[in-house]
């Protein structure tokens, strides 16, 4: 097993992509043709060595055949000793071997160039494999997905993003790896590196109920091959939330319902929509974070926790999460326990670390 620095090198996304294309091309290759070609080359070299051994009188021995075979191989690869032969027939054999070697080198060079051209073409068409680990997979594309990409690009913790969408070109632009395919296909999901991803976000292609059904199928496909990956889904119809839960989606967001409720609160209490938009969007100002809490915070009351976060990290406490449930206004006798995390508003995390969420 490869460990240490070599393991890190071979885990590089670029090398993993080349490995994917090598396996793909190897599966499409005519193995019989290459086996026949190699056999013909070896046979030609052996025959040439036998002829040289017979033509050059002083080399007519088993040791002489070995030397002639070595000379024939080195001549083919372009480093043979021209003074090894002295007879006219030996010169002809040497020329033929040299010409044969040039043809082999040209063929190998053409094969290597063709291999990399094929890689570039397939990568440009979205037919490659991401090769990332710990990344985010965006399944599907709509206006919400476009805004999400812009938000992720502005986050201080730069996370690699892979978009899976059935389109001719990358809809997300530079900096985002594109995989062309079907969001319900386990093969196409595999090319996104879904098994090594940290989370997957599924978007409906339009506002129809049929788009929600495809999103449910996408969640089921993800769960079947990568059950440890967190799945977050945008749903069109609130009535489909139960179906998404049965498909084991971790989080379901009904954007229409969220927008309507935010608008209702803003109508009652002016300015709330601007406030919420500011804290959930990147860029300048404060943002919303879910963070891990140091072990030394265990046992603090809610007031002590709030004061410590504010004093040490310039972060305002919004909620404490315990056992998957968020408490936005805990009672006064509340005490922090091991495993609790916090939702805060801050300009930056500083020394705090973002919570590494696991599949629930």
What does the model show?
This protein is of the alpha/beta class and 360 residues long. It folds into 3 domains: 5-124, Orthogonal Bundle (Helix Hairpins); 136-258, NAD(P)-binding Rossmann-like Domain (Rossmann fold); 286-360, Regulator of K+ conductance, C-terminal domain (Alpha-Beta Plaits). The protein is 48% helix and 14% strand. The chain contains 12 helices and 10 strands. Strands 3-2-1-4-5-6 form a 6-stranded parallel beta sheet, with helices on both faces. The longest helix is centred in the first third of the chain and has 37 residues, at 88-124. The model has no long low-confidence stretch (mean pLDDT 82).
Give a topology summary:
Elements: H1 5-10, H2 13-28, H3 31-55, H4 62-76, H5 88-124, E1 136-139, H6 143-153, E2 161-165, E3 177-180, H7 186-191, E4 199-202, H8 209-225, E5 230-235, H9 241-246, E6 251-254, H10 255-268, H11 272-280, E7 287-292, H12 302-313, E8 316-322, E9 325-327, E10 341-346
Parallel strand pairs: 1-2, 1-4, 2-3, 4-5, 5-6
Antiparallel strand pairs: 7-10, 8-9, 8-10
Helix pairs in contact: 3-4, 3-5
Short structural summary:
The chain is α/β, with parallel strands linked by helices. It contains twelve helices and ten strands.
């Amino acid at each position: 097993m490869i460990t240490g620095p070599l393991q890190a090198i071979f885990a590089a996304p670029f090398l993993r992509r080349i490995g994917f294309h090598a396996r793909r091309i190897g599966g499409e290759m005519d193995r019989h043709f290459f086996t026949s070609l190699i056999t013909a080359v070896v046979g030609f070299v052996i025959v040439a060595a036998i002829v040289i051994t017979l033509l050059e009188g002083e080399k007519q021995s088993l040791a002489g055949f070995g030397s002639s075979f070595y000379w024939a191989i080195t001549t083919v690869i372009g480093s043979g000793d021209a003074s090894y032969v002295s007879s006219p027939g030996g010169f002809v054999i040497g020329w033929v071997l040299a010409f044969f070697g040039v043809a082999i080198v040209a063929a190998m060079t053409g094969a290597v160039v063709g291999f990399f051209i094929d890689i570039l073409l397939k990568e440009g068409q979205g037919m490659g494999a991401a090769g990332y680990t710990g990344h985010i997979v965006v399944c599907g594309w709509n206006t919400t997905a476009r805004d999400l990409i812009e938000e992720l690009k502005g986050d201080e913790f730069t996370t690699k993003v892979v978009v899976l969408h059935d389109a001719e070109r990358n809809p997300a632009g530079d900096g985002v790896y594109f995989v062309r395919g079907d969001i319900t296909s386990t093969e196409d999901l595999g090319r996104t590196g879904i098994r090594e991803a940290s989370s997957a976000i599924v978007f409906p292609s339009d506002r129809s109920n049929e788009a929600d059904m495809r999103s449910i199928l996408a969640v089921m496909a993800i769960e079947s091959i990568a059950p440890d990956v967190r799945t977050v889904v945008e749903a069109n119809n609130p009535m489909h939330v139960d179906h998404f839960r049965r498909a084991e989606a971790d989080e379901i967001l009904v954007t229409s319902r969220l927008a309507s409720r935010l608008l209702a609160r803003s109508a009652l209490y002016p300015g709330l929509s601007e406030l919420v938009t500011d804290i959930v969007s990147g860029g300048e100002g404060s943002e919303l974070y879910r963070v891990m809490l140091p072990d030394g915070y265990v046992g603090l009351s809610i007031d002590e926790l709030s004061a410590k976060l504010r004093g040490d990290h310039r972060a305002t406490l919004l909620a404490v999460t315990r056992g998957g449930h968020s408490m936005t206004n805990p009672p006064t006798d509340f005490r922090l326990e091991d495993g609790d995390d916090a939702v805060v508003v801050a300009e930056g995390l500083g020394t705090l670390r973002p919570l590494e969420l696991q599949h629930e």
